[in-house]
Amino acid sequence: xxxxxxxxxxxxxxxxxxxxxxxxxxxxxxxxxxxxxxxxxxxxxxxxxxxxxxxxxxxxxxxxxxxxxxxxxxxxxxxxxxxxxxxxxxxxxxxxxxxxxxxxxxxxxxxxxxxxxxxxxxxxxxxxxxxxxxxxxxxxxxxxxxxxxxxxxxxxxxxxxxxxxxxxxxxxxx
Length: 174
Known about the structure:
By secondary structure, the protein is an alpha+beta fold.
């Protein structure tokens, strides 16, 4: 079966990106995927069920916009409390992610890698064929694993609109 392709959703500079995989839809169950932690151990996305989940995807933590996005969600995590888990997922190698988190003081966001075949990016329609990176996005998933909000940033060089992401997460806490 050929890959599902979505075009025209996002750009990296002048380059229109082709996203591979089925796009996330509100009301659907978040597809499970196995990513890699900074300790090189496999982590199933489904292991976070039971809490509200904000998933932030970035092309590479080594860029200013990606690091700003990750720092912002790290700051927001404190205000959201223990009932919300924030994941940042990129294709960066886990050792580079660990170095980044240490240098930037990222201690409230769980940073995971999709570098082993991009199972998360391909399952959620966020893997960009042209760059071999994840598209910049944010999603909110409820305690039962149902997608309640999703946003793919139309220009990859810009940060997401944080307000609706945080609002969607807060609504699930009520």
